[in-house]
Structures are given as structure tokens and as C-alpha cells.
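Inputs:
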Amino acid sequence: MSSYEWQFTILFQYWPIFLRGALTTLEITFAATALGLLIGLPVGVLRQARSRWVRLPVSVYVESIRATPALVQIVWIYYCFPILFGLQMSAEVTMIVALGIHTGAYVAEIVRAGINAVDRGQFAAAKSIGMSSLLALRRIILPQAGQKMIPPFINEFANIMKLSTLGSTIAVYELLQESNNLIATIYRPLEIYTFLALVFFLITYPWILLSQRFEARLQRRA
Amino acid sequence: MLSVKHLSKSYGNLVILKDISVEIGANEVVAVIGPSGSGKSTLLKCLNFLEPYDGGEVRFEGTLVGYREHSAGKHLAKEKVTNLLRARIGMVFQNFNLFPHMSVIENLLEGPVQVLGENRAEVEHRAQALLLKVGLQDKAHARPSTLSGGQQQRAAIARALAMRPRLMLFDEPTSALDPELVGEVLSIIAQLATEGMPMVIVTHEMSFAREVASRVIFMEGGEIVEEGPPEKIFRQPDNLRTQQFLSRVLH
């Protein structure tokens, strides 16, 4: 063991900085999740569409997002969007949009898996009483699939929380960026990074626990 | 009521149904029997287009099922038109397929309220009466998963009847049931038959087919081998394949 002298007490006076960072992290997480759900729910449903012309574009979206790193997506949107589309967004909004688009693909996969997990007979029964595909989806399939989707949704939420640290690469003042700035001022990287890890654990782990609780409850019911 | 002409269906090279023709009149109870894989369930599902067919035609009360009549070839009918037809034809499945996230009575209300747009309070009245008829009046608010297989199938029959269908299709309604629960389901189907509900029943219950059906169709290898009144089919079938099948299942 090295004889490093830990000095955590020094961090206490900087608590507003961590609080500010945590608030930005949460803001990005919640907003990106909302956007991800908004994109992912219809995309997941459309991936099952009968028409190839509907399936093709949504599949291209999902697969290209899943096959590229989130960090590349973020910098791409940050640097290329303004040039290609003349769309200038603040770093934080960029982060929300990028993570939202990123998560949308994963949410879509969760939705697709959830729908596929519903017994085929349910669709046949819905059709047999004259339901349209859309009505069957809304009244019969999605309510059953929805339950199965809750645990992976929560996991995805915890994922975004961790991915939000990528915002530091485009100077978004979330937890990691704030920590880096603080290190530049007080030269205490060990304490600060350790504390940062602890903060992330504290705000992420409860969600993972919650997801496990949901999963256990679903298994008991099945 | 229902007219099937030269119906055929195949998956790639695998022929499931070949050249099926049959007429089903009002008040008729038709039992379809035959070995597994003979295409009888597929035939039943073609009747309400849950399974699309390739060749020939199915007509329900004169309307072509699943397709649109067209001078130049055949086009799928609008989904709306097919849905409307399905709403008039009740179907009961081997595995019940009740909606597990709804109570029994909600299962009955779903079609009439959501599909037919009927008044909920009125349908509820009818649904209660149907539950009484199938002996489930005290299970109205139970979840399907808490019911026995026999109760679930009776609820499924009530769900189909709640739509006030003109024709009922039964796809091996007792095959997934424990032997001691078969009777309660069959007696309800028999009661419906005596009330004059036209129906097509795919079944392995030979004695039931014999008692309830006005006509029996024997299928094998995707085609109708023989059909006739039950006394004829079960006592003196003309066809050797029918004789062989019956001697296998009856002894």
C-alpha cells in the first residue's frame, strides 16, 4: 500500500459544486429518457410492421445506433449537426438529444422483445373478435408487454445516468466535468474521483435494485 | 351461410389444404375430425381469415372472406372489411386465449364495447346473463389465471358469444383440458347446438361429434376424404381411410 494521505474533509466545502453537477446529470438523464421513450416506443412497434418500407428505415436507425459508440454519436451530433442542418444547440441540449436518440434504439429493442414475449394466441383472440391490429396492440398486446418491459426500462435509465458523464467531452457541466474543474483548482484527484464514483453509485444503484424487485415480482406472478 | 369452394393453402412446397369445398347452412353443426396434421385447424382458421388462404374462396353470408373481388386477379380486402366479418364469427381456441390482464367480465365486454362500440352498461347486462349461462356468474371479477381450464374455456365461449356471432368456430376446444373438465365444456357447446347456433367444431371427441353434429367431415392429408351424417360416417363409412382412422381412435 502506498502511504497516500486521504483528505476527504476538504471536499465538504465544495458540496454546492457536486450538487450543481448532480442536478445537471439528473436533468440530462430524465430529459434523455423521456426523449428515448418518445422515439423508442413507436420505433419498437414499427419494427414489427408488415410493410418492408416501414421496417427498413426504423431498422437502419436501430442497428446503426447499436453498432456505434455513444461517444461518437455525441460528438457527431455536436460537430456535424450545426454544419449539416444549421442547428446550433447548447452543449447540454446536444447531450439530451444525443442520449435520447441513443436510448431510443435500445428502448425500441426492449419494446420489440416485450411484444414478442406476448403469447401469439392473444393476437389471434383479439383478431377473432374483430379488432384491428392497432386496437389489438393498444388494448391487448401492449398492456401485457408493458409489464415485461418495466425492468429493462429501469436498467436503461440507470445506463443513461452513467452515459451522461460523456457530456464532459463537450464541456457539459455534469458531475464529471464539475469534478475535473474542481481538480484543476484544488489538486485532489484521488479524493474527488473516489467521491464521484460514490455519488454515481448512490444515484444509480437504487434503480438497479428497483429493476430487480420488479423482475422478481413478475417471475412470482408467472 | 358459409360456402367454401376449391380452397387451397400451402407454405412453400408444403401443401396444407387442397381443393376443399364445403357448404355450411344455417342451423348446421359440423364436426371436423381427422388425424393431427390433416389441416383441419388450418381450414377452420381460413374460415375467418386468421390464416390467409391462397386459392379458391370462402364466402360468409355471400361476402368473400379476406379478399376483394377484382377483375384483374385477387387483392387482399381492406383490414376494416375483414375485421367486420370476424366480428360476426365467434371463435374458441384450444388454449382459451383469454386476456390475462382483464377480469372475466372485462374479457366479455372488450369486443362489444371496443369493436362494436356498444353501450357498456347494456353489454354488461348481456355479459352477466352469458356468465350465468356458462355457470361462471360468481367468477365475473376473477382473473382468468385463477380459473380452472374448464372454467377458462367456458369464459372464452362466453366472450365469443358476447359479440352475438352468426356462426361459431371451435378449434379443438377440449384438447388442452384435463379429462375430468372436458364434460363441462362439451355440455355448453351441445346446449348452443340445440339452441340452433350454427357451428363448425374441430374435435378429437368422437362420441361428442356423433351426438351433437348434424354433419361430420373427415379430413386427411389436407383434403376432405368423406363427409356425411354422423350415423353414416361412424357406422358405415364408405372410404377405407375413414374406416382405418375410426378403427384407430374408437378402439
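The interface with chain A takes residues 48, 50, 79-80, 83-91, 93, 95, 97-101, 110-111, 114-116, 159-160, 163 of chain B (CB under 8 Å). Flag for discussion at group meeting.
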